Amino acid sequence: MNKKNKKKVVNTAAIGLSLLMSSTLLVGNAVSVYASPTISTTEQNAIDAFLATQPVDGDTRNIATTNPAPATPITYTFPGTNSYVSVFRKPNDTLQLQDDYLFSYDPAGTYGHTPLQVKIKDWNTITWYRFSSTPEYINYFHDEIDTYFTQKITIIRQDDNTEITLDYPTLTAFRGSLPANSWNGYINIHYRPSGIMGDMPIEANDPRFKIYYTVYPNDYSNFAGDQATAYVYNRGYWRLEVPMEEKFSYDTIVQIDESLKTNETVVSEGDFGKKSTVFLISDFPDRSEQNYHLYTSDVIYNGLKTDFENATSDTTITDTFGWVEFSGDVHFTSSTNRIIRVGIDYTHYVADDGTVLKPTTYGLNPVDTIAGYQFVSSHREANGDLVHVYTVPSATTPSTPASPTTPATADKTNVFASAIAMMSAIFVSVVALVKRQKRV
Predict the structure, then answer these.
(1) What distance in Å separates the CA atoms of residue 86 and residue 194, rounded to the nearest whole number?
(2) Is residue 255 left, alpha or beta, with left meaning phi > 0 and alpha meaning psi from -120 to 50?
């Protein structure tokens, strides 16, 4: 009788141990392990909420949108048509002629002929502005460029006293001062026939426009690049760029991936999409003072910006703004979404002959009682799924179920403490019964 009772107690303890082990699986499944240096708390909460819906392989959910940082605002303001200083003009450097000097004048297309001798009408009322120079030019000549420009003058031919009006003439003084009645200066010398670029209504500190100087196209005894600003009137020696860019947002998407195990995540970082172009000067259809004043840098930039914003696919934009024409290729790059692949697993209940005993359940779940079968063991598949294996009991099959997994140390302590408490209770009961029988 005592042995029989003891056997029952042992079986009860074994069953309790099995149940505790099963609960250990359940608790382990509930612990969130999606935390990662690349996954925020907000994202983790969204992932957990998605998993609570028991999604299947390939299911996705958009949990966030990342927007690009706002572009740095442009604080530059064009100072006005009467106050700007062209990118090609040297600030605060002007020239006032001190006498009625004699100049040589090269009419357009007369290079190689004897230049005309001319004087400037109303010479003492005209302000000349100096071209700026690149560091390369100064390094070669050890001096600033000595060419000036103004908007308009009238010259008087000395051979017949006829007058000629010139728009944006250049004045070249060959170093040093201009002594009275000397012939050492040129008006519109053949390689600097126009100074109109010196008055271009774009300033050097305008962040919307980028000016780049190119080298001289031929190498004349190491002269390459040294005359960059000596030829500012010629677009072949410089280029003007107007870059534009717009970035697009990307989404963070959770994607269920059954090939990953529960508690595994793989993150593919996202990237902003982009629309971009660089507008370049393609032509000068009309370079006149009036058009300069009407089509300033503000007008040009705002017009190009409108063209850029209206583009919806890869295209080439060409637009004219009075004195200048720009062209640019617009390119689109798609956004790359941030993908968080999250693993899921299932629990299978099968007989040792492969028979499915119970529908597959979502997640990692504990051993369950199945009528007519006895639990044998549990194992994990390569994809992370949990498989509980059962068998049909036989006369020789022990009635004590095998442990599905090894419990944690704390669980072992609790189990053995419970078992010892139960054994102590039984021992006390047996002792009391024996004493009672002795009294009888």
Answers:
(1) 15
(2) beta
The answer to whether 171 and 106 are in contact (CB under 8 A) is no
Q: Name the token pair of 137.
A: 């030019």
402 CB burial (10 A radius; 0-12, 13-18, 19+):
middle
| Dihedral Cα 190, 296, 124, 194, nearest 10 deg | 0
Q: What are the structure tokens assigned to 90, written together?
A: 């040297």
> Who contacts 306 (Cβ-Cβ below 8 Å, separation ≥6)?
none
- Per-residue pLDDT tens over the stretch 248-293: 999 999 999 999 999 899 999 999 999 999 999 988 888 777 888 8
Does the pLDDT of residue 426 top 70, yes or no? no
How long is the chain? 440
Which residue do the tokens 């006369």 mark? 395
Asked if residue 149 lies in contact with residue 126, where contact means CB atoms within 8 angstroms, the answer is: no
Tell me how far CA of residue 287 lies from CA of 28, 39, 153, 325, in angstroms. Answer: 78, 58, 17, 11
Least confident of 30-34, 51-55, 308-312, 386-390: 30-34
**Helix, strand or coil, per DSSP, at residue 256:** strand
Token output for 93: 């450097």
Question: What are 306-316's pLDDT values in tens digits?
Answer: 999 999 999 99
Q: List alpha helices for 107-199, DSSP H.
A: 135-141
Q: Of 195, 226, 53, 42, whose CA–CA distance to 128 is shortest?
A: 195
First to last CA, the chain: 18
Residues 162, 166, 168: CA angle, nearest 5 degrees:
160
Instruction: Return the beta strands (E) in 284-373 as ranges.
Output: 315-321, 324-333, 338-343, 346-351, 356-362
CA distance 258 to 279: 49
The answer to whether the beta carbons of residues 270 and 337 sit under 8 Å apart is: yes
Domain boundaries, given as residue ranges, for the chain: 2-55+345-439, 60-78+204-343, 89-199
Closest CA to 87 of 224, 232, 298: 232
What is the pLDDT, as a whole number, of residue 338? 96
Could you tell me which residues come within 8 angstroms of residue 440 by beta carbon, excluding any fewer than 6 positions away? none
pLDDT digits (tens, 9 = 90+) for 360-377: 999 999 999 999 999 999
Residue 290, both tokens: 């009036």
In whole angstroms, give the CA distance from residue 202 to residue 321. Answer: 13
Sign, CA torsion 381/383/388/391: negative
